Amino acid sequence: MSVLLIAEHNNKELRPFTLNAITAASQIDQDLHILVIGHNADGAAKAASSVPLVKKVIHIDNSIYENYLAENFTPVILKHAESYSHIVCSANTFGKNLMPRIAALLDCSQVSDIIKVISPDTFLRPIYAGNAFATVKSSDKKKCVTIRPTSFDAAPSDGGSAEIVKGDGADEFTLTKFVKKEEIKSDRPELGTARIVISGGRGMQSGDNFKLITAIADKLNAAIGASRAAVDAGYITNDHQVGQTGKVVVPDLYIAVGISGAIQHLAGMKESKVIVAINKDGEAPIFSVADYGLEADLFEALPQFLEELNKLNTIQK
Amino acid sequence: MKILVAVKRVIDYNVQVRVKEDGTGVVTDNVKMSTNPPDDNAVEEAVKIKEAGKATEVVAITIGEEKAQETVRKALAVGADRGIHVKAEGILEPLAVSKILQKVVDKEKPDLVFMGKQAIDDDCNQTGQMLAALLNWPQATFASKIEVKDKSLEVTREVDEGLETIVVNVPAIVTCDLRLNEPRYASLPNIMKAKKKPLEQLSATDLGIDTKPRIEQIKVEEPPKRKAGIKVASVSELVQKLKNEAKVI
Description:
The complex is a heterodimer.
Chain A (H helix, E strand, L loop, with lengths): L2 E4 L9 H13 L3 E7 L3 H8 L6 E6 L8 H12 L4 E5 L2 H13 L5 E4 L1 E4 L2 E6 L4 E7 L4 E5 L15 E4 L9 E8 L12 E5 L9 H11 L2 E4 L1 H5 L20 E5 L5 H4 L7 E6 L12 E4 L2 H14 L6
Helix pairs in contact in A: 3-4, 5-8
Chain B lengths: L1 E5 L2 E3 L21 E3 L1 H15 L5 E8 L4 H9 L4 E6 L6 H15 L3 E5 L10 H9 L3 E11 L2 E8 L2 E8 L2 E5 L11 H7 L4 E5 L11 E7 L8 E3 L2 H11 L4
Parallel strand pairs in B: 1-4, 1-6, 4-5, 5-11, 6-10, 7-10
Antiparallel strand pairs in B: 2-3, 7-8, 8-9
């Protein structure tokens, strides 16, 4: 048995969730190899080889892999998949887009979004937006698995020195063309890995009012999240969405402001260690998952919250 | 241009799902069922493209037990021209569904296949990508904007880092995000008219597809419950609790 993990990277370095996926992959089998497909991606290949849990890095370099397209990555992965018992990657938009394309061509019924490795063929995964957990056992010879990154710790990223071998690419898929990616740059911690997340919902009433949340996020060094309602209303961009179809976050502290707590939002945050809800509707479902609930008008509570934080001598970073 | 739209019948998104006591699954008896929400967006987008004069026919397809037909009828009521129901019993994995869709695509020869990006029951997020693989077609997943060009689509995709734009040549698969559009409601006259639209019946067996699951569902259980929290009276009490009790700030 051995595991092939498909790295997500930006040609310079690994994207953080690759490290979480490495932890899960090493629990399936210790013989873990990483495939880095990119262009001028020596930095990413080197970063992968420094992860102590990684035994070997296969690096494929070609200008056609400068931007990630599942249609281009799939034939390369199939070319290298032969000797592995498991093909894995993280269950974010990168892996969700890619893995089923590989699985179908291997005639494998994919196991999506696992939150626990029970044995090399048996996994725990949430269904119905996390309202139920299913224990599932794959009978396919070669298994394709995606990993919910926030359910596994990030693997230590230095101290290793796995060998890097160059691998062959495959023919270009010419029917899909990458045009552009509009990345939203931010000095804040990434939503998926932040220690503290503060999110706003429809109760914020406008995009402008999110400045109340931004001020507190600055103070706490927190990432900013949002409910689907707030994104749909145009208050904030989609990359902030927390929920079943957005990002799943598991911070130490999650502060939900003006969020009622629809099932699909709870699916994205209810595993957080400590949850605070601020809402003027005392009956809002968000209070059923909150450790600390404050029934209050957010437009009064948020400025007070900032004032109270300013009074503290120290704030954990 | 012809568009095939796949729809799935799932437990309604407003229903609080309950796990069966024997651990074999979730309670579905006497539970409200409806079309998987992003599949409604897929239907809406196909109908809008037809209304804009850029498509000639919209065909809605569902796969599953007899009652799954309701989802096709709903699609017909909001503007799809005809329907297909492929009968299949039991748990259907995305791999089997994509193989059935492949057979139907071979027969119907659509230029585009639309569906929701994910079903809210099994949360697999696989079928569109698998179908694209089997057909060796381009895939535009998590679409939040579609522009129909001559023989191609420009699609804006919602990805973790923000928005990505790709161009896919037709024929192609598109999986739709909830933000793609606002699905319309069916009017009563249109619901009545939909009953007269053609709905073809096929079966997975006739199409030669084995739908036997490859993944054994060993047990389904409730997720661990959070212990009940408390209500605080003021912002200062909240900050004190976070600092001194929870020790998170």
